[in-house]
């Protein structure tokens, strides 16, 4: 009780003695309400894990930018499914879910996997049944908005899509999938819809230096059913180690997961590299092989220093992210120039 009282005093004090930069909340994209919720959870005596879960859950409730939570990014059959993970940097435990159906609170289910099982990752219908058995409410994840997105896609002959070759159409509403030439050019660097990739990735470090990280997303719009991206994969979507710090990523998950950018960034910080440079290294490693990929990484070390990096694309030269610490005592959006 005394420790919680001390943390409350530290969180809200504005005296010169409170110039340290811990605790810290940092997350991808300008999802201010998620940042504020995580900070409030810390200041109410919650743990770093509690803060990550609360912050990501807030984004799920608000359907942040249509790319987190229910009612967004329908797949080829029109269904919205969710991916999420949470990691405890003290114990190195991870809980994750992929292609979660019917359950809105994906980050909560991920934490249940971590704390209520000896597993790390549950997927698909089995993950949904597990969630229902744990008491999570089963609800329809479809909304008028997701139906509208799906209907528009069907009217455009199922373009764009993620198929590389002609293949059967599971929806039977259009002909065989044929990659649209214009869409292929867009993916190679001319145009990109950043709102189809806005995963929330969050890192929280409390006053005691305990690190936690988490992610939540509804995945890639018009994805092939069954697809799971980078977000719920430890080391790809996020990574936390309380002896070092944490990192979280967002962007083209099918490419980014191949390079484990969050793990790489944390290992860079372990070697003494500052957070900004660690993030840049993670992005540069991917850029070497896929120069036109879309993505960004945020990093924070155990002292509360932080940074971010992104890959420069036409129309995307800066990446916005949120920070909350005692230096400003308010959530603030920061921008990093892409490389």
Structural write-up:
Substrate binds at residues 227-230, 250-253. Its EC number is 3.5.1.26. Cleaves the GlcNAc-Asn bond which joins oligosaccharides to the peptide of asparagine-linked glycoproteins. InterPro entries: Ntn_hydrolases_N, Peptidase_T2. It is globular, with a radius of gyration of 19 Å. Helix 2 packs antiparallel against helix 3 (48-62) and helix 3 (48-62) runs antiparallel to helix 4. The strands form two sheets. An eight-stranded mixed sheet has the order 4-3-2-6-5-1-11-12. The protein has a four-stranded antiparallel sheet with strand order 7-8-9-10. The protein has one domain (2-7, 22-140, 192-337): Glutamine Phosphoribosylpyrophosphate, subunit 1, domain 1 (4-Layer Sandwich), CATH 3.60.20. Helices cover 32% and strands 22% of the residues. With 339 residues, it is α+β, with helices and mostly antiparallel strands. The chain is built from ten helices and twelve strands.
What's this, in brief?
This protein has helices at residues 2-12, 32-43, 48-62, 106-116, 124-133, 144-155, 181-187, 253-256, 261-270, 275-289, and strands spanning 24-28, 82-88, 93-100, 121-123, 200-205, 211-217, 238-241, 245-251, 295-301, 306-310, 318-325, 332-337.
């Amino acid at each position: 009780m005394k420790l919680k009282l001390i943390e409350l005093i530290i969180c809200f004090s504005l005296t010169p003695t409170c110039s340290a930069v811990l605790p810290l909340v940092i997350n991808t994209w300008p999802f201010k309400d998620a940042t504020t919720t995580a900070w409030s959870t810390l200041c109410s005596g919650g743990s770093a894990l509690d803060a990550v879960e609360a912050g990501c859950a807030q984004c799920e409730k608000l359907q942040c930018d249509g790319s987190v939570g229910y009612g967004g990014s329908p797949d080829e059959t029109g269904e919205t499914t969710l991916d999420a993970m949470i990691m405890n940097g003290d114990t190195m435990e991870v809980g994750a879910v992929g292609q979660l159906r019917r359950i809105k609170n994906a980050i909560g289910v991920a934490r249940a996997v971590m704390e209520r099982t000896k597993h790390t990752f549950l997927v698909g219908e089995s993950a949904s049944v597990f969630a229902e058995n744990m008491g999570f409410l089963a609800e329809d994840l479809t909304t008028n908005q997701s139906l509208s997105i799906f209907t528009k896609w069907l009217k455009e002959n199922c373009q764009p899509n993620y198929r590389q070759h002609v293949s059967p159409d599971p929806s039977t509403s259009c002909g065989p999938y044929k990659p649209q030439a214009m869409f292929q050019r867009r993916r190679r660097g001319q145009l990109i819809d950043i709102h189809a990739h806005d995963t929330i990735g969050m890192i929280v470090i409390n006053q005691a230096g305990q690190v936690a990280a988490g992610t939540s997303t509804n995945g890639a719009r018009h994805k092939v059913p069954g697809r799971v991206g980078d977000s719920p994969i430890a080391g790809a979507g996020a990574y936390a180690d309380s002896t070092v710090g944490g990192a979280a990523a967002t962007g083209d998950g099918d490419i980014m997961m191949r390079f484990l950018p969050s793990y790489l960034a944390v290992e860079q910080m372990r070697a003494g590299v500052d957070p900004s440079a660690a993030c840049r290294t993670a992005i540069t490693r991917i850029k070497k092989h896929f120069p036109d990929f879309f993505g960004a990484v945020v990093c924070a070390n155990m002292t509360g220093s932080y940074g971010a990096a992104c890959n420069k694309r036409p129309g995307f030269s800066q990446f916005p992210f949120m920070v909350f610490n005692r230096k400003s005592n308010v959530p603030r959006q920061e921008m990093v120039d892409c490389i």
